[in-house]
């Protein structure tokens, strides 16, 4: 099942410099809440800048759903420092509000009015808001306030050039894209170790369970919060993830051109279900951007997806067609409630090791049948990952295997990669985190989901969430006195407002002409 990578490990030993220049970026979402835990009803704070044009602080689905975006960097400490500064800067601007420390919004009430994010009167701003209106009409508004952390990762071009030689790939144009698709296929096969280790949403409020077929027997606490004793990340399940199935869209990751074509098809094929919603209401207000299966590439909610930076008004699919895959986006990280900024260095180090490993091991092409079994393994870990003596299905061999046996093989390889990276950097960071995370499989009580569940059962979800949000707020306010990026964040906030005004003044087309040209 897992190929021997001794040859590739030797190759890395001989060429350790090919891993210099790994670039990373983090996107962290978090809900703005009142001190009592209820959703904030205020607009996106003006002093944080324009949510349309600020490079680093914006909104996701709703006005109170903040999104922090770090610049790409090859220095992990710099990324985490910048992300911390974004949180500190924001805390100094939101006064009596706080940032919710969990992925799941547990404090929702029926009367809560979720305000869809607004981006001004420009055509671009209207398009972004209408896209979110479409998400609300297609999937519901509450489910779109579930938050996560996205980890953007790219291997150096020198790595891919050597990888091409090592794999004896003849394609001189798309070898980088082939490499990332190779990695992505393996992430689907084995990426369930990420929610096992870092999943932090084993409990979910009752209102998420309406009209959901309950395959598993949930327990309930006094706050009417349902939980599963062995669950890791219900956010990634059908209960919490607003997901148009990859299988339904027939999107595979075997060939770059086929991937682009299948994504293009989803973007241009009308959906009977979404046609019933209608493009506009009786007052000619847009209900969604279009009635296609996907309104835009961003609606493809997957565990991992290929990305490319866009230019000017270029769409993602145009960027991919023109220049291929540039990096990958890991979307299966819950917010880490034990970190003020939602993620920590150990997680990044482990992700680095795992993603490099995914690039090194063999990666057979997959079909729909394979993906059915792949999804079942993810479901097993999501709902019952910490269950004693848990099994994973090895579909290539048509048999069950103990989870811990598979982990033994994976971590043997990860330790070898860690040694190479540490030797080159003259430290032991990767080896240390590798040894630490291995213990999470030996003792599942060390996982984030188990720690979360203990707090939840002992102290209740609301009290725990409010205590953490206040503690983290105090930390941010104190640290903001030493915020090295405060000046540039203030400048970007003001510049972003000026930029939004320029965009609004430069519009020539009316909105329908603009949207039809997209």
Automatic annotation (TrEMBL):
Q: Known EC number(s)?
A: 6.3.2.2
Record's InterPro entries? Gln_synth/guanido_kin_cat_dom, Glu_cys_ligase, Glut_cys_ligase
GO terms under biological process: glutathione biosynthetic process
Q: Name one GO molecular function term.
A: glutamate-cysteine ligase activity
Q: Domain Glutamate--cysteine ligase: where? A: 12-381
Superkingdom, taxonomy of origin: Bacteria
What family is this protein classified in?
Belongs to the glutamate--cysteine ligase type 1 family. Type 1 subfamily.
Its protein name is Glutamate--cysteine ligase
Its source organism is: Buchnera aphidicola str. Ua
């Amino acid at each position: 099942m897992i190929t021997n990578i001794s040859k590739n490990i030797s190759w890395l030993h001989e060429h350790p410099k090919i891993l210099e220049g790994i670039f990373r970026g983090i996107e962290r979402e978090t809900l703005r809440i009142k001190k009592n835990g209820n959703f904030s009803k205020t607009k996106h704070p003006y002093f944080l800048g324009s949510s349309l044009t600020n490079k680093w602080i914006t909104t996701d689905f709703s006005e109170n759903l903040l999104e922090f975006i770090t610049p790409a960097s090859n220095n992990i400490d710099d990324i985490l420092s910048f992300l911390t500064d974004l949180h500190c800067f924001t805390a100094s601007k939101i006064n009596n509000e706080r940032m919710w420390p969990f992925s799941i919004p547990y404090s929702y009430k029926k009367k809560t009015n979720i305000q869809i994010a607004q981006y001004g009167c420009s055509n671009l701003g209207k398009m972004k808001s209408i896209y979110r209106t479409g998400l609300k009409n297609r999937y519901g508004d509450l489910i779109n306030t579930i938050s996560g952390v996205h980890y953007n990762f790219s291997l150096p071009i020198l790595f891919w050039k050597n990888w091409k030689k090592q794999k004896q790939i003849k394609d001189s144009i798309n070898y980088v894209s082939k490499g990332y698709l190779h990695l992505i296929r393996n992430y689907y096969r084995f990426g369930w170790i990420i929610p096992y280790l870092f999943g932090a949403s084993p409990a979910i409020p009752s209102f998420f369970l309406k009209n959901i077929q309950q395959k598993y027997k949930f327990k309930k606490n006094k706050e009417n919060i349902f939980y599963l004793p062995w669950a890791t990340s219900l956010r990634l399940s059908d209960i919490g993830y607003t997901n148009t199935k990859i299988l339904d869209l027939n999107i595979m990751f075997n060939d770059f051109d086929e991937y682009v074509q299948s994504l293009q098809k989803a973007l241009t094929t009308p959906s009977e279900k979404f046609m019933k919603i209608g493009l506009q209401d009786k007052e000619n207000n847009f209900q969604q951007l279009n009635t296609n299966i996907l309104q835009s590439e961003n609606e493809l909610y997957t565990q991992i997806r290929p990305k490319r930076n866009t230019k000017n008004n270029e769409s993602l699919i145009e960027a991919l067609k023109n220049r291929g895959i540039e990096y990958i986006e890991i979307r299966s990280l819950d917010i880490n409630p034990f970190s003020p900024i939602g993620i920590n260095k150990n997680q990044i180090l482990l992700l680095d090791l795992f993603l490099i490993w995914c690039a090194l091991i063999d990666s057979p092409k997959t079909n729909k049948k394979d993906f059915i079994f792949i999804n079942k393994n993810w479901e097993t870990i999501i709902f019952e990952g910490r269950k004693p003596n848990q099994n994973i299905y090895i579909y290539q061999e048509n048999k069950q295997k103990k989870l811990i046996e598979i982990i033994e093989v994976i971590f043997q390889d990860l330790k070898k990669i860690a040694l190479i990276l540490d030797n080159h950097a003259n430290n032991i960071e990767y080896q240390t985190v590798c040894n630490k995370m291995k213990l999470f499989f030996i003792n599942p009580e060390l996982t984030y989901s188990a720690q979360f569940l203990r707090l939840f059962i002992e102290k209740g979800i609301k009290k725990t969430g409010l205590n953490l949000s206040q503690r983290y707020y105090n930390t941010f306010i104190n640290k903001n006195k030493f915020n090295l990026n405060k000046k540039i964040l203030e400048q970007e906030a003001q510049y972003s407002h000026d930029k939004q005004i320029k965009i609004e003044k430069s519009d020539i087309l009316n909105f329908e002409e603009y949207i039809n040209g997209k």
